[in-house]
Amino acid sequence: MGISLKDRNRLECFPEQLSSISLRVGKVIMKYLDKIYKESEVSWFTPVEIFKPWYAHGIAEAIMRTANLSVPLKIYEIGGGSGTCAKGIMDYIMLNAPPRVYNNMTYISVEVSPSLAEIQRETVGEVRSHLSKFRVECRDATDRSGWGDAEQQPCWVIMLEVLDNLPHDLIYSENQVSPWMEVWVEKQQDRETLSELYKPLQDSLIKRCVAIIDLDKKHDSQSSAILKAKSVWSKVFPKPQRCWLPTGCLKLLEVLHEVLPKMSLIASDFSYLPDVRILGERAPLVSTKKDGSSSDYSSYLDARGDADIFFPTEFWLLERIDHYCSGWLKLQKDLSSKEGKKRRTITLDTSSFMDEFGLPSKTRTKDGYNPLLDDFKNTKFYLSVPTHNTV
Q1: Torsion sign across C-alpha atoms 124, 125, 128, 129
Q2: What Å distances lie between residue 223 and 216, 219, 226, 227, 229, CA to CA?
Q3: Pairing assessment for the beta strands 74-78 and 155-160 based on DSSP bridges
Q4: pTM flag (> 0.70)
């Protein structure tokens, strides 16, 4: 395998004090947030924690508007953190859906961290009636064996700030026309330093990801003269290329589409990250926190155990991976196939999503500032539901 970077497990909780602060003016909130960040060992508070319960309520409303409520509602959440999203969604459905919807619903959290799994049970258990409808399965969602037999029942899958933590693989090309190489990391002999080693593409997951992105496109439509000119240009002005592949996302969606073929998906994550110092397309932000201050690394090789790693999500690529894993993009290679897309998808910035499904009036300050709509400009929502079109 090439180099895969995983974020360490973090408890992304938000102090209860913020919930008791009246939303007076934006400056007061920002000042308080700055103070809490400096005092905390946590580098990032998730929106679902900051805006509880309103953020989760927006997601619940999106589900209720789209779900077929004539069948029992089943929700999976991948990486449920402290359980705030699960409790918020179940609270909203209990209060706003017909009683039969709440009474027959199932909410399953797939959580790899045993400590977070226990915290989720405690959070959701604050409402006693939720417990009979909620369970945590402590396992890796990307492990196919943990899912058992495929389910044909319609269901929802929620992933909040999951994609940025999933493993990525790095590939390298020495110039514009050279083939892509896998990047491996090796430890120097008798030294603690790490260095990169380049090998031909051989990992099947990396190959599939490269094919989906179409990085190895042959430019068949271009003339041989243009291709020859590009080859000469790359030799005169060689430009090394580095690209981070969302192989963890591909692996997860391959499993989800296999075991939950009728799932509807809601994912939210970073669409871009500011001040990234690591080189390469879709490069991560790698930082560490000490004495209340964060500092960023210029090389992932320097990051050790306590580093936080965040990858941006290219939502057009997420959509393409989603279509690939559903089987539709594979069918398009067969020119005789007339089968239509198997998914209906839409990407919305967080402000648009919450303006449509949430209750932004609940987070608006007296001076008109609304952090639910005005902040988190670098995050988006991705919604994907199954369709049976056969055009």
Answers
A1: positive
A2: 17, 9, 5, 6, 10
A3: parallel
A4: yes
pLDDT tens sequence for the chain (391 residues): 333 333 323 333 333 434 434 444 555 655 666 665 555 555 567 889 888 999 999 999 999 999 999 999 999 999 999 999 999 999 999 999 999 999 999 999 999 999 999 999 999 999 999 999 999 999 999 999 999 999 999 999 999 999 999 999 999 999 878 899 999 999 877 677 888 999 999 999 999 999 999 854 544 445 555 555 555 555 556 689 999 999 999 999 999 999 999 999 999 999 999 889 999 999 999 988 776 677 888 999 888 777 888 999 999 999 999 999 998 766 555 545 556 678 999 999 999 999 999 999 888 888 788 888 888 889 999 999 998 644 3
The identity of residue 213, as a single letter, is I
At 72, phi and psi to the nearest 5? -55, 135
At residue 312's C-alpha, the angle toward residues 209 and 360, to 5°, is 130
Contact between 63 and 69 under an 8 Å Cβ cutoff? The reply is no
Q: How far apart are CA 81 and CA 108, in angstroms?
A: 13
Closest CA to 161 of 81, 91, 90: 81
Tell me the C-alpha distance between 79 and 95, whole Å.
Answer: 25
Cα dist from 355 to 62, 86, 362, whole Å: 11, 21, 11
C-alpha dihedral (118, 247, 307, 34), degrees to nearest 10:
-70
Question: Which contiguous run of DSSP H or E holds residue 86?
Answer: helix 84-96
Buried (b) or exposed (e) across 10-48, using 16+ Cβ within 10 A? bebbbeeebeeeebeebeebeeebeeebeeeebbbbbbb
Q: Which amino acid is at 93?
A: I
Residue 142 has which token pair? Answer: 């990307």
DSSP string, 255-289: HHHHH-TTEEEEEEEES--TT--S-SBTPPEEEEE
ω into 53 cis (within 30 of 0): yes
CB 12 within 8 A of CB 127: no
Q: Is 126 exposed, middle or buried (0-12, 13-18, 19+ CB in 10 A)?
A: exposed
CB 137 within 8 A of CB 78: no
